[in-house]
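Researcher: Sequence of UmuC domain-containing protein follows. Predict its structure.
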Amino acid sequence: MDDLAQSLDFCSISSHQRTIIHIDIDCFYAQVEMIKNPALRNCPLGIQQKNIIVTSNYVAREYGIEKCMLVNEGLQLCPQLVLVRGEDLYDYRQISAKITTLLHRYSPQVEKLGLDENFVDVTDLVAERLGDSTDQQIIDGCIYGDLNEKCECGCKNRLCVGSHIAGEMRSEIHNILGITSCAGISCNKLLAKLVCATHKPNQQTTVFPCNSLALVSSLQNVSGIPGIGRRMHEILQFHGILSVTDLQNCNLTSLQKALGNDMAIRIKKLSYGIDDSLVKQTGKPQSIGLEDGFRKICLESEVKDKLAGLLERLLRLLSQDGRIPGSIRVTTRKYDSIQKRSHRESRQCNIAATSFIMNGGPHYRNKIALKSNEKFLALIMQLFHKMVDISKPFHLTLLGLAFTKFRECKTGKSSIASFLTNDISVQSVLSFKILSSETEEMEYSCMNSMERSGSESEPEPESKKARTELLIPRSKTRFSNEEDATGDSADCALWMVSKSKAPNEQTLDTDRISVEHSSNSGVTGKISLESQTSSSRSTNSVHGMTNENEFQCPHNVDADVFHALPHELKKELIEAWRIGKNEVSSTSQGKQDTFHSKPKQKSILQYLIPK
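Model: Prediction complete. Tokens:
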């Protein structure tokens, strides 16, 4: 216990170096509704989700309205209570994002905590202002405890400057968005959050390290410490730890047996007001999801209607986020009438990026939508059927949808593919597939069944593992623009390698191809590629080329870019392409399986073919 006490003293001193501000928006949902409808400002207002009042404005709280109160109970206390439905969180998310953006003006280290709370680490900004500030001894707002801070590390001056920064934040949020907020200022996240709640609404409070123990000890229950959830609270209750004082005085060894070594030490420190956790800069979420709870759903048609509504709302959030998901997750909560308890279960599956289209809209720069809502909803129902047997009676109390495994689009104006290839070249390269048959004839066929002279049989579909894309791994395929993502794969040239041809004496035939593409405006255009037939030179003859006109552009490289390259780069490109084709031909003679034909690691070819 002595070792722990010494470590607590060390941590309490070292943790004074930071300045943390906790911003908490007053009755956030209610304020957003009052901004949308100013007539509600002087009325008792409650935000209703299902049959619960999730929050209310301060006028309603004067009548005794509390968070998570039943609607019937609230109307009994305040018959004139105005209720606004708050299931759709879109407007709340928008305002929350704007608040976080404003806070980023003061520090890049901003950590969101829900929609209405943010931690901001302003340590660097305080250090900049210490030399010039005249407010090092004046506190802006309220003070928890007294000013008798005897610490010699300079934390008193830093927190004074931090209080003025917090005041600037709150003023800017109010002036720009019309939102009032509270703030807590201290040397760590725990104290900043706790002291923020001591003076509400529209106020701010600073607590110095000398009063940190008194602040934590004032909590009525150990569950009031942030970081102690319901499960941990039950464990602590089982061991007779009910108050913060009990947690401070309990034996560390017994606490470690119940919670583990690291967690026991962590909550022991929290009980003394010591928190060394960092403000983690919040990025884009790893998943975007919605859930809808209800009393009972027992019909498949009701499930489908509910999931269709969630999907529509989820696509709006997806458009706001701007990323394309790689997986869809479906969540259910089933009620067991025999055991009188609920069971939560989820299933997910991967989804292709080509399932989505991006179009400009009146509300979004790039509105993300589905190519086929019906097919996607059918996929969601398949996941649902894996969890619920509809041939038997079922009782659901919750349904949820979530997109996960997001990936950023790395093509477009910032991609090297837009400089080295034109649209049709990227489409053609992305469409090439290599198929092996018993006669060892490899063909690249057009996706839209382009008619050619002579009869050709359609190749038999191969297994998923046997089909590969030439030169481009499937997992790294990307679209170069929005038109590529909205339609099917573009038509590609026909490439035939006959068994009778030598590996270094292949013939390239490119027929006239008509490629149709649609723009965002709905206008359909056609691009024609002229027919050209050329006989490939052998590998040995490639090294001896001196005339640039003798270079034949490989089928998967843009012709204009190729002809603009220097002579030496053309030679290197032709040689790399030839070696790759020889390797494929020689391998296919011994095996019937297909393989990737990849450019060498240091070849110029890898820069001319989009990955």
